[in-house]
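Late entry, evening session. Most of the bench is empty. Finally got around to the prediction I had been postponing all week. Sequence below, unchanged from the version circulated by S.P.
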Amino acid sequence: MILLNPGPVNVSERVRQALMRPDICHRESEFSDLLGRIQQKLLTAFVPGAEADYIAVVLTGSGTAAVESAVMSCLPTGKRMLVLNNGVYGERLSNMIGLHRLGVSELKSEWHIKPDPERVRLALRQHPEVHAVAMVHHETTTGLINPIKEIAEVVDSQNRVFVVDSVSGLGGEAIDIAGSHIYMVAGTAGKCIQGFPGVSFVLLRKGFLERMRGYPKRSWYLHMTHYVDDQGKGTVPFTPAVQVYYAFEEALDELLEEGVANRTQRYRRTATRIRERMGQLGVKALLPPESQSNTITAFHLPSGVTYASLHDQLKDRGYVIYAGQGQLESKIFRIANMGALTEPHIQGFLTAFEQVLAGAAVHT
């Protein structure tokens, strides 16, 4: 089955075979070595040239676990977080903070609109109690790329902490973590890194770590410094998904061999091809080109076609697409092109889509 959904993704045979490596105990040196290699490869991939300034904290859990670990661990007593919300995953950030009543009024934008840096600047001046700002990098609700660099400059100029959910961004979108002075970036194995779901991570700026040690513990499993301290000794505080870590390392090796910039360019080329063919078929994208990500495109459902029918007919042909969410559920569908997808996979999908569309036209 060819997965055109935003994670889990199709992986290479090489990554799949890594699951078959020998069983090891996570309290033994073999696992410590594996963990150390993963951490170093994450730093090499995503903070090149600034590896000494960051720590890669690896968790067993989905990308949401890494995001929640970051936002729950970065606030001192009496301080608050400002969330920039323009999609389902921005809303999820707000809900995480809301559970502990740690937020201020969020800055909401329409789901197709990028946050305005000057609104952020004004909000931070009006709310001195805000210690951190959180935002989604790639808002997969619509396939929108948010202005990370511009927001980071504002947050840094106001001496606040910037936390980025780049679960669907890292490996697929350009982001200068170190150059933008971003304190915490959450990512996952099972999207643009092309690994399996079940392992996630946070890239944490070392200078911020020492400040975090005195912050309240709002979760036992997800408190960041538990992981930092244990992983500094080559171990983990809780039982990890060992075999998935093996596959994660293999996926990181593939990423480094291809090159992060080359992978983002490959994704961009594939997305452009899909968008151009859809345009030729009269299927309209939700967002303008300048707002679109490299790996997900949201399209308006063609007239007279329901998502359920489109999905089921494509799945019968071996291709899985993705529904809209929230207020867009009945209006759009999404095509993701992240993962170990080949030229024949994409051509096969486009052919299948055209067949389904032609059949729908006949029946209407």
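Two things to note before I forget:
The chain has a mean pLDDT of 95.
Residues 93 and 319 are 31 Å apart (CA to CA).
Will write this up properly tomorrow.
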